[in-house]
Amino acid sequence: MASMITLTMSAVPDHLRGALSRWLLEVTPQMYVGTVSAKVRDQLWGAVSACVEEGVAVLVHPADNEQGFELRTAGQHRRKPIDFDGLTLIAYTGDAEPDGGKDIANPS
Fold this sequence. Notes:
- The protein is α+β, with helices and mostly antiparallel strands.
- 19% of the residues lie in helices and 43% in strands.
- It is built from two helices and eight strands.
- The chain has a five-stranded antiparallel beta sheet, covered by helices on one side.
């Protein structure tokens, strides 16, 4: 079943923007919105996370949890999503990694 996603990026290669515009609408510079299947969403995110280099990317998509959405991040961040008792919170890390909670940006 298709669901709406939002993808924001900054400082990413231009070719990535062109590839994303095939599937999603660029509603503002480097912010994309669209309705795609989970398979397409995962393939798009794979392409984004592989190309992000020094930039930043955040994907928000619906999920069956308390908040109703999940976040995926790639690149260099000062803000990191962390799991806190089943809720996703954003930790402002500065230059250090967040303490406590499970880092859901890069699950291992």
